[in-house]
Amino acid sequence: MNFDDTPQEAEFRTKARAFLDAHLKKLDPTAGEAGEFENESRDDIARAKKWQATKFDAGWAVLTWPKEYGGQGLGRLENVIFNQEEAKYHVPPPVYGIGHGMLGPTIMAHGNQAQKDRFVKEMARGQVIWCQLFSEPAAGSDLAGLRTSAVRDGNDWIINGQKIWSTGAQYCDWGMIVTRHDPNVPKHDGLTYFIIDMKSPGVEIRPIKQINGGSGFNEVFFTNARVPDSQRVGGVGEGWKVSITTLMNERVSIGAGQGAGRVKDLFRLARKVKRGGKPAIQDSATRQKLADFFVVSKGLQYTGYRTLSAISRGATPGPEGSIGKAVGAPLSQAMALFASELQGAVGGLLDRSASPDASWMEGYLASPGIRIAGGTDEVLRNIIAERVLGLPAETRADKGIAFRDIPSSAARK
Amino acid sequence: MNLEFSDEQKFVQKAARDYLAEHSKLDVCRKVLESGQPYAAELWKGVAELGWLGTAIPEAYGGAGLGYLELVLISQELGRALAPIPFSSSIYLCAEAILQAGSEEQKKKYLPKLAAGELIGTFALAEGTGDFNANDVETKFDGKSVSGVKLPVPDGVSAGIAVVVAKEGAGVSLVLVNLDGSGVTRTNLAAFDPSRPQAKLEFTAAAGERLGAAGAGAKIASAVLDRAAVLIGYEQIGGAERALEMTRNYTMGRFAFGRPIASFQALKHRMADVFAKIQIALSNGYYAAWALSNDNDELPVAAATTRVAACDAFTLACEELIQMHGGVGYTWEYDCHLFYRRARGLASTIGSPNEWRDTLVTRVDATI
Lengths: 413, 368
What we know:
The complex is a heterodimer. In chain A, a hairpin with a 2-residue loop joins strand 9 and strand 10. The longest helix of chain A has 28 residues. The termini of chain A are far apart. Chain A is an alpha+beta fold. Chain B is α+β, with helices and mostly antiparallel strands. Helix content of chain B is 54%, strand content 15%. The longest helix of chain B has 37 residues. Chains A and B meet through helix 7, helix 8, helix 9 and helix 11 of A and helix 7, strand 9, helix 8, helix 9 and helix 11 of B.
C-alpha cells in the first residue's frame, strides 16, 4: 500500500513536466474553470490538432496504446500521471476523448488488421477527429432498441436513420456507428457496427442547441449513406458486443475525476464570500456542506486510484468504474448549486462581469447534461446493482421477442 | 502508487474472518446485548490468544509488532462480525494513548497487559452533551488525583484503567487512573448498543498518574482520536459491508408481485447507493490507513474524512437494512437491529460526525 509515486513514477512525472513546461503556459490554480460542453470554435479545433501533433511527435500522445499504433505502450498509471500534469496548464479544449478513450480501444479490440493499420495510428496523431454514433431519438438508455438500419448491397451497406447526441460530429472526420441489420431477431442479436466517413454523401449533421446555449452535441441523419463492408467492425450481428467495449471505456473515461477537482475551489469561494458579515467558511451550515463535498470528492479520487491500481495489472475495466460517474455527476451538480447559493443574488446571474466565479452558475446549467450523457444516473445504478451486487435484472417486456414486434414510442408515431 | 494490501496482510484478514465466522456469530453479539454482560469473555480470550490485540504494539511491549495496515483489516472483520468485545476502547484508544505519550515505564507497565487482554483500558473524555473536545472538560487533575464526572465512557464498567482527559491548571492533561482504586464510582448506562456498553465514571480524588506532559493533553488526545477514527472507521466499513450483503440476500429471497423484490429498481438503486457510499468510505479509508501506517502529515485530514464517510456509510447501510427487510426487520428476533444499534453506537463515540465535519473543514482550509 503506497499512495506516493514510485521512483520510476516520480521520474516519469518530472519528464512530463519538463515537456509541458517547454510548450505550455501554467494555469493559475485559484482561477475558475470554464463550463462543460462549450461550443468549440474552428480556431479551438486547429489549436487542439496542433497540440496533439506536438505531443505525438514528441512521444507524449495516447500513452497506453501499443507503439505500433502510435502509442507508447505505457500503463494507465503513467497516463494518469501525464493527465494530472497536463491539467495544470492551458491546453486547447479536449476533442479526442471519444476517439482516444473509446473508439481507438474498440477498433484495437474488435477490428481486423487492415482496420487497425488504416485508422488507429492516424487517430493517434489527431489530425482527423472521430465521433460516436450510438444514441437515437427512441434509443437512449435502451441503446439496443436502436432503429438506424443497415442493408447489405454488394460490397457495401446502405445506412438509413437518425442518430443523436453525437459529441463533436460537426467537426469530425470519422464516426463509429451501431446499426440494425436484422429486425427479425431479438434486439441485441440484430446489430452491426461500422466505421463511417462523416463526409460521405447522405450524412447530414445538425448541431443541437443545449439548455446552456452551447452546441457540443449533434443530430446526424443518414439517407442512403454507403459504407463499404471493409469498414464493418466485428461480425454481422456482433454489434452489441462491440458497443459494450466502447461503453465500458466511456464510463471509465467519463468517470475519472468528475467534480473531484473543484472542491478546493469551493473552499476558496467560501473564504471569499460573506455570511452574516463573516467569511462563509466560518458559517457552520456552510462548513457541514463543504465537509461532505470534500469527503465524497476525495473518496471518488481514491476510488479512481484503486481501480487504476487494479487495472494497471492488466485487467479490463470492470463495472466498478460506474461508481465514479454515478456519484461524480450528481456531485458536480450539487457543488455547482451550492457555489451558486453561496454567491447570493449574484448566483442568479450568468455574467462574468458581475462575478469572477460565474463559472459555477455556468457549471450548474451544464451539469444536468453530465448526469445524462454516457449513461444516466439510473442506468449506472442498474449496472452497479446487477453487475456488482448481482441483483436480478428488471423484468423485461422485450425479452426473446423479434425487434419488429417490440412495442415502442417510435413505432407508434 | 500501489493500492493493494500485501498477500500477507490479506492472509491476516482472511484468518480473522474465518475465526470470527466460527467464534463470533451474531448470536454471540445478541447474547451480550440481551444478557447485560459487559462483553463476550470467551471471544475476548480467543482474540487475545491469537495476538490480535497487540497487532500494532511493538514486540518490546508485548505486541506482535506488525502494523496498522494489518490492524485496520482486523478491525474491518471485527466490525463485520459485530464482535461484542472492548477492542476499540482498550487498543485504539487506551493503548494508542500510551504508545503516543507514555513514558518508557508506563509503556512497559501497561502495554504488555493490554496486548495480552489481561487488562482492559478505556478513554474518558466526554462529559455529557457538550462538544467532544478535550479543551472543554471540567474534570480536574491536581497533579496527584482526579475529580469529576465522565459520561459516557465506553466499556467503563469492565475497564481496569482509563486515560482521563482533565484540566490541570490552565491547561489540559491526560491522566491514567486505576478504575479499581478508591474514589471511583462506576454506573452502567442504558446504551443504544448494549453489545458495547457505556458507563458513567465519577472520580472523587481518585489517584492518577500523568500520561505525557502537563498541558499537552489536548494535543495528544487529538492525535489519539485521529488514529482511532481510522481504526473505528474500518470497523464501521466492515459492518456496513455485512449489512449490505444481508440486505441483498434477503431481498433476493423475498418475493412480491411474483418476483424477487431485489429486481425492483426502487430497491436496486438504493442498494447501489449504499454500495457507492461504502466505496467512498473504503477509498478514504485506504488513504487514511496508508497515512496512519506511515505517520504521514496527511493523517489529520484523512482521518477526519474517513470518520465522516464511515459514519455515513454504516448509518445508511443499517437504515436500509431494516427498511428493505420490511416488517420483520423491525422485530427483536431478526438481527437487523444489532447492526442499527452498532452503527449509532460507533457514530456517537469519539465525537459525532458533525463535529468531525467541522474539524475536517478547519484542517482542509489550513492546507489550501
